[in-house]
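Q: What structure does this chain adopt?
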Amino acid sequence: MIKNEGEEIAQKFLFSKGYEILERNFHAGQLGEIDIVCRDGDEIVFVEVKMRSSDGFGDPEDAVDFRKLAKIARVAEVYLGGARSKWRIDVVGIKGKEIVHIQDVSSD
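A:
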């Protein structure tokens, strides 16, 4: 598996769905990183990408727990810089040729 292969696949998938890709691998120092930042209509979308090559560790999207979501939310706030933009967190899970896109995972 090539480093960032999952992000490449996810970016192409999101672009094909009409998302505007704004940035990849946004870093906020010690707080962490967001894999893909994009726009879906009037919303800024922060996307966590998980890729698995086998079933050994379960579905890739299941690896995004509440701690990871909280970390993404903190980095998202840095990205937004206090702007009152409408935003959400999505997860793209990739396993083989299967792509699972979960929108607004933070509302679960």
